[in-house]
Fold these 3 entries.
Entry 1:
Amino acid sequence: MEKKDKEKKQILLRLSSSLWQDIAQWSEDEFRSINGQIEYLLTECVKEHKKGKM
């Protein structure tokens, strides 16, 4: 991991109650924290986006 990847940025994220509940359940199913699940999902989406651009 590069140094810049180790640095974490904080953001305020507003989600609907239903989306929060869905992500909470999904994160529990995959043994991640909710924050970890959101970070994982965003990382996967960015990887897919980059694949489509190449």
Entry 2:
Amino acid sequence: MDTREQLLMPRDEYLKQLIAWHGKHVIKVITGVRRCGKSTLFSLYIRYLKELGVQDRQIISINLEHIEYEHLLDYHALYRHIKELLQLDVQTYVFIDEIQQCKGFEKAVDSLFIKENIDLYITGSNAYLLSGELATFLSGRYVEIRILPLSFREYLEFTHAGKDNPALPFNRYLKHGFFPYIPMLEQQDPIIRTYIEGIYTTILLKDVAQRKAITDVALLERIIKFLGSSIGSPISAKKICDTIISSGRKISVNTVDAYMQALLDSYIFYKVDRYDIKGRSFLKTLGKYYIVDMGLRNHLLMNSGSDIGHQIENIEYLELLRRGYQVSIGKLEDKEVDFVAASQEGLLYVQVSASVLDQATLKRELAPLQAIRDHHPKVLLTLDEIGAGSNHDGIQQKNLLQWLVDSR
């Protein structure tokens, strides 16, 4: 991790979450797509510990992607190495970055966890981390903190752009994406493209193809591009399979489904299921997929895209995740609500549209929200400049950019 990135890219919201678990006897598991800031979060937290008076000898930090730790990629070696460095008289804080690189890592983690005076923190760039034996070993003994690339609010802070006129930086945010190091590259398009290409290639080969033993990388990329071009649209493995078959390539639905799951596991895409608002049940078919970073999508499709409606829908979905919501697509008979966001406080219904200045468009976007008969809050987010307190019979209309930068 670049030292400048560590110094200039604080992730305060995530740091607060990590601090909240300080001293609790659970494993702290940090997950998220590669290069989203997991290592930086460790560095920020270690600095916090040192400010509390924790000494260097109490901190063990290992990044299993660095060549100097290549000898620790076997769980026996990893366990022995850490055991020899443990302090017996005080608490030892152990940080292991990209732990999925270690074969059998869950056995080392389990053995370390049961030792006295150890506080264990791990990161991973693949959902397999918590879907295999580790989850079985550590059921009820870990907490997961999921990291995403920069929110628009963070992007403004890092680029020192004014919140009063966010339109221009938002266009750059859409074009270049949200990875934390992007603001360091000073809007130099060729450098940014090279940086994003490096991230994409590493994710594709290391976190997807290698981990899932996928040899047909060309087919994998074809599925990635299909999903990237279809964000916000109902998609199924069969639909992708039929499209590929129609071009003369033989493939099974099971293969497509396995490839799609590998992309979900690597945090490149997120699947959102549909929720029957009236029947209060989740539907099994035709979910939607959203990509973790718009810069990655633009790299895949070789342009910035003209489908602004789907792009801002994607950004809104990620923001709802950042704010702690469980998100689904709302279905109400023949109508659809972009997002049903659930939290401990209740439900929030969200509709997203680039513009509703046209009265027919406004009527169309309001209709699904108006059809909902409960009293949970409903909001319509657009890029239109609107006055404060715009209200459509209880449905709040807000400017999307202002909503993104407002305090939670």
Entry 3:
Amino acid sequence: MSNVRDFGATGDGTADDTQAIQHALADGDGEVVFPRGNYRVTRTLHVPLQKFGRTSLSGSGGVAKLIMDGPGACLAIEATHTGTADPASFREQQWQQERMPTVDGIEIEGRHKEADGILLRGVVQPTLTRVLIRRVRTALKVTGRARNVIVNGCHFYENSGVGIHLAQLNLHQVIIADSHISYCRLGGIRIEDSEIRNLQITGNDIEYNNYRAHKRQFPDAAGEPTAEIYIDVSTGSVREGTIASNTIQATYSPGGANIRFLGSGETGHEKAGMWTITGNLIGSQSNNIHLTRAYGVNITGNYIYSGHHRNLLVEDSRNIVVGSNSFGHNADYGNKALATGLRFVNCRNCNLTGVLIQDAPLGQHTVSGAVALQRDALVEIIDGQSFNISGCQILDGTPVGLRLENCSNSLVSGCSILDQRSERKMRRAIECRGGTGNLISNNRLSGRKADLPADRPGFTVSGNVFDS
């Protein structure tokens, strides 16, 4: 065990302890311990594992703090992995020198406007536990070529950049679990320009990651789009992942989202996809889930509420499955409701099955200062191909329950599209505008049979029951 005090660190928050800590990292026994104290550093603490060997840093259960009083990462851990996760691709030196660096029970706080938290580059099995990083730009950045990353039980709070930034990264097997990621201006978890497979985001509280907590420092940043989980595949690809059992919510920000996928290319679908979004509580952003050019995303078992623009917005995507979710409101706010809505544009091969969606009683936003709602229906399918909408309850839609515009080869079956309000506001249950090869059958609908396009080419209508 190498106690940084034995190498000359004071931990008084004033003296520059950079050289002493770097000395402990380079010449200690690899188990570097920080007793209780505030350790001021003015330049990056470098840990080249191929040179230093196996390394761990411990803040003695959370009582030690590193104060980064200079630009750049407070701690940079670097290694030399160039292979895959296959055991045959590892060199023996990596197991002897570079595997599983750990950081546990320590706080990092920024004191310089260009300070960052931890940088991991080319590292295998890095493990962060019980780490608090606050008031830096980016709390944790993973880059280069990495495998088997674990972030567990950490707090990334009040940072002017990103909470966890995966950028210029080739990575397989990463688990982000049981952590609190909040009040980071450019997103909670943000992925850019990377090739990533097998990403699990599980059991976290990810919230309020937008400009609102940083207005004083960044007064002109309101229009910069962000998200709690932001997956940008303008370049690279991100596939094979889960977002499960998290609380993901925010205060409204213009163009913001709780979960955002941005695919790429003319087709682009294969580059952002093969994901499940399951068992989460997701609410209170402009778009709660926003998918663009995504492929193979399953959204099920979530409660999704109070989207300012849409609870779910899907564009230019295919093979999207939305099942057994509830789209609604937060009852804690009483009559201060945000009208819900789902919108699909230019999508194909999509299923909406077993969904419950209920609009606000007044069919409009009743929250002071909310952006005016503009929509044609509670559920909008525009230029859709091969949609299966079955077993859904679409309740209290305003002005229309379900709108199909220029859709083809789609089915609406076994749904209840009803206005349950004492004063009805839904003009019609289903509105159809153009399309070919569509079937509307065996639904329970508010309104009149005459509202459906029974004699219009492109629609077959049969077996529906009307309440008036």
